[in-house]
What we know:
Layout: H1 3-14, E1 16-21, H2 26-31, E2 36-39, E3 43-50, H3 51-63, E4 69-71
Antiparallel strand pairs: 1-3, 1-4, 2-3
Amino acid sequence: MDFLSVLRQIRRMSDFVDIIIPVAAQHAAEALGLKVSRSVTTGVRIRHIPRDEAEIAVEYLRDWGFSARIVEPAPPGDFKQAA
C-alpha cells in the first residue's frame, strides 16, 4: 500500500461523523431512515454517517423542533466525549 492510498483512506474515514440528539428525537431520526444507538455513556447518537447526509439530517431535525449537533466520532474506548 503506497502513501497516497493511505491518505485517501484516512480522508474517507474523516468524512464520517456522529450526530448527537435528545431521546425525544429518536423516533424522528428513525423516520428519516437513520439507525439510532443509545448508550449510558455517550447518550443517543446516530453513528458513522457521511458528513453531507448528517448536515441534511440535522436540518430536518431542527426544522421539526429537535436539537441536534454534529460531532467527530469518538475513538473506541474514549468516554470523554459524552453527550
